[in-house]
Design brief:
By secondary structure, the chain is of the alpha+beta class. The chain contains 3 helices and 6 strands. The protein is globular, with a radius of gyration of 13 Å.
Length: 100
């Protein structure tokens, strides 16, 4: 199994919306991928409530059958369609991929 974790810090304004609206939209869009992409076992998106200087604004936690499934997800049209919106909304991105 492969775990894919991504954290984003969002801009105050982007895509014609404030940070909170962008976070909700990203959460809904990513979680809608569940059951749509072969090899994607679990997808969960959390929005930070602490808002500390060290906090990221949103986190994606996902599980895949294997590395090939993660690669398939990365190139899938449904995933690719979300990326421009996230790219415009984010100011920073961190990612960790690991196998268990």
């Amino acid at each position: 199994m492969v775990k894919h974790i991504v954290c984003w810090r969002l801009k105050d304004e982007a895509n014609g919306m404030n940070k909170e609206a962008n976070a909700r939209s990203i959460k809904e869009s990513l979680e809608a991928l569940h059951g749509q992409i072969h090899g994607l076992i679990k997808i969960e998106v959390g929005i930070d409530f602490l808002h500390s200087p060290e906090s990221m604004d949103i986190v994606l936690y996902s599980e895949f059958e294997n590395k090939a499934a993660l690669d398939f997800y990365q190139q899938h049209p449904l995933h690719k369609a979300i990326m421009p919106f996230i790219g415009e909304a984010r100011s920073e991105r961190r990612v960790v991929d690991y196998e268990v």
